[in-house]
Amino acid sequence: MNEYDSSRMRDLLGDSHGFVRTDNPDEADVLLLNTCSIREKAQEKVFSELGRWHKLKKSRPDVVIGVGGCVASQEGEGILKRAPYVDLVFGPQTLHRLPQMLNDLSGDGERKRISQVDVSFPEIEKFDFLPEPRIEGHKAFVSIMEGCSKYCTFCVVPYTRGEEVSRPFDDVIAEVAQIARQGVREVTLLGQNVNGYYGSFHDGSICNFAALLRAVAAVPGIGRIRYTTSHPLEFNDDLIAAHAELPQLAAHVHLPVQSGSDRILAAMKRNHEISVYRDTITRLKAAKPGIELSSDFIIGFPGESEQDFQDTMDLVDFVGFDHSYSFIYSKRPGTPAAELPDDTPEALKKQRLNILQTQIARNTGRKTEAMLGSVQRVLVDRPSTRFPGWLIGIAENTRWIHFPGDAALIGRFADVQVTGVESINALSAGAPLWVESEAEAQIGMAVLPGRIPLWHEAR
Ligand code: SF4
User: Fold this and answer.
1) Do both 406 and 258 map to the same domain?
2) What is the pLDDT of residues 42-98, one digit of tens each?
3) Which among 145, 155, 163, 193 is the best mutation to test ligand 1's pocket, defined by most ligand atoms within 8 Å of the CB?
4) Which helix (H) or strand (E) segment is 367 a member of?
5) Nearest atom in ligand 1 to 158's CA
6) Tens digit of pLDDT for each residue in 8-27?
7) Does 455 reside within a domain?
8) Is the dihedral of CA 400, 402, 408, 413 positive or negative?
9) What CATH number does residue 80 fall under?
């Protein structure tokens, strides 16, 4: 999510102000820190980085220092109190005002030196002012809703990004059509609770997420659709039906669950029981045979017992997750869960996380190996750097596949037969890649377990 916002800032400044990106703070005119409060010590890290920049500003007083993101939202004016040399403080909902805020800092060429703070939640305005969607080759990310109204007890998002607000239907479809004309073939719809999308049609009536998916699938040129991040509460019958109907919907869904225990789900205020999640997965697998699932897990939430953890492992066995984003719980300041007593030893939490990750990594390897001999539809992305003269494409289940082919295939879908696989374990052990000779590999080649960046939920 923050990476997405960072790229938006880059686009905004590059497009409208002609800034050139540098990774070297010493040569920058504007230094922007996009912060995230995922970890308890995030605030401290922000101020320690700002301290380094302060030294730089002492030698070059014209340098503009800005702080954005979740910590900016949470701290607001407090950042200026502690670091008065900061010029701009803006939240995730006001990053589109960045060019204007930079403009306002200077008057007639002379810096006004009045620091600007804007951490408000201006609702839909953000969507109106953002530049073009982020396009990576023939894939693109399109933001369709922002914020979250779920208030899980461990999460800062509702406080830092505001309540859920959806983009109008026509705006989303116009943007998808435009990027499709530019050559985009795979689109990922983004939102904190993407399946909680309720955008308005131009006549004021409301469009739900499944209806939006059907409309996106109808846009000429769009051959594959992904979305992230979804919530189990809004994974309704209509959305499951869309998976059965639409061949463009990738057979891969990221559906965060966080825990397999009803007791912990209640303490997290996830507002559903685990039976709902299991039922959703069962119906989804029936609707789209072969669909793969990934999820987010928080291990060691306050009060997690051995039985609660076992319930999570039972769920892992039941679903057979392909991969996960899993973390040990850490307090986010200002959230209700931060007040809960937590007496589970850190070593035990690490042990549980290791058990879960090992089990899911086994699934990943097993599923990768099961692709051997299969024919996979890939979106051909670029020349393979690993195998000179070959191409690389991404399969529906997010594995990267290398294969010999003509560069004219880039940006198109191709069916390739998998003739060799490389597991994650082999990669981490540094084992040599097993490949067949090019002569033998008529159309397919090595599958590498890769994945597109998911906008995952655990915060
Ligand atoms: S974890 Fe997800 S659903 Fe829960 S409050 Fe955070 S963003 Fe919302």
Assistant:
1) no
2) 677 888 888 888 988 888 888 889 888 878 877 788 888 888 898 888 887 777 788
3) 155
4) helix 346-370
5) 5
6) 777 778 755 678 888 788 88
7) no
8) negative
9) 3.40.50.12160
